[in-house]
């Protein structure tokens, strides 16, 4: 889920700050995850804060958003039997947010319910670069050379070193607010995903909108690039 439209939602309602929209979005996330859990969905990834957002957002808005995400991570870690995982880089993230994400991960590590990925400080291109760096570093520590690595490097190896290593690729990517682009989200993992775009801003997302997306997905014939 690419969570989009929170700021525009607040602006259209003439609310004082974008933070009102982000808080409404956070409240909707809790509701949305219950819908997913009740349908038996196993893994959900929420795109909350891109790496680009860290440099192109107003400082006041960013500070508020960081606080909201930290509160959300703590809240989700106490919900049902959900397992929370941070996917993204900690570079540039405020220490309190990193600590909140880490605490949510640690406290839910043994949970076996819905797996909730929080994409924070996330960038798809950066993720692929980080994966390759990890592979090169690991290979070098084992005494291998770059030439050796070139002979054994596979897509599966790269996938294992992504932030989502060990998880299935997403079947369906949903974006709210009417925008129809990926915005650097899960570039590698979504190679064969289906896409669904919702006109509603994220805080206005209804369960019927979500169920329509799921029904539309169920009716598609997946071709996996063929």
TrEMBL record:
Its cofactor is Mg(2+). CDD domains: Cis_IPPS. Keywords: Magnesium, Metal-binding, Transferase. It comes from the Bacteria. InterPro entries: UPP_synth-like, UPP_synth-like_CS, UPP_synth-like_sf. SUPFAM superfamilies: Undecaprenyl diphosphate synthase (SSF64005). The active site is at 4, 53 (proton acceptor). Its EC number is 2.5.1.-. Substrate binds at residues 5-9, 22, 50-52, 57, 175, 181-183. Binds 2 magnesium ions per subunit. The keyword Lyase does not apply. Pfam families: Prenyltransf. Mg(2+) binds at residues 4, 194. The keyword Metal-binding applies. GO terms for molecular function: transferase activity. Belongs to the UPP synthase family. Z-FPP synthase subfamily. Homodimer. Catalyzes the condensation of isopentenyl diphosphate (IPP) with allylic pyrophosphates generating different type of terpenoids. NCBIfam families: uppS. This is Isoprenyl transferase.
């Amino acid at each position: 889920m690419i969570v989009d439209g929170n700021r525009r939602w607040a602006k259209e309602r003439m609310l004082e700050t974008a933070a009102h929209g982000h808080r409404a979005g956070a409240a909707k996330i809790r509701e949305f995850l219950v819908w997913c859990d009740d349908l038996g969905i196993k893994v959900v990834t929420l795109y909350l804060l891109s790496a680009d957002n860290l440099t192109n957002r107003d400082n006041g808005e960013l500070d508020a958003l960081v606080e909201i995400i930290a509160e959300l991570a703590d809240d989700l870690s106490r919900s049902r039997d959900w397992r929370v995982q941070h996917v993204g880089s900690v570079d540039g993230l405020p220490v309190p947010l990193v600590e909140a994400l880490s605490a949510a991960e640690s406290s839910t590590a043994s949970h076996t319910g819905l797996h909730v990925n929080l994409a924070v400080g996330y960038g798809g291109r950066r993720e692929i670069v980080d994966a390759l760096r990890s592979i090169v570093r690991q290979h070098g520590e084992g005494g291998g050379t770059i030439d050796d690595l070139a002979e054994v490097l596979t897509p599966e190896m790269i996938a294992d070193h992504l932030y989502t290593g060990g998880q299935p690729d997403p079947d369906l990517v949903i974006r709210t607010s009417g925008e129809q682009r990926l915005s650097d989200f899960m570039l590698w993992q979504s190679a064969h995903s289906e896409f669904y775009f919702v006109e509603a801003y994220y805080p206005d997302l209804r369960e019927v909108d979500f169920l329509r997306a799921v029904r539309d997905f169920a009716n598609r014939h997946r071709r996996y690039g063929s």
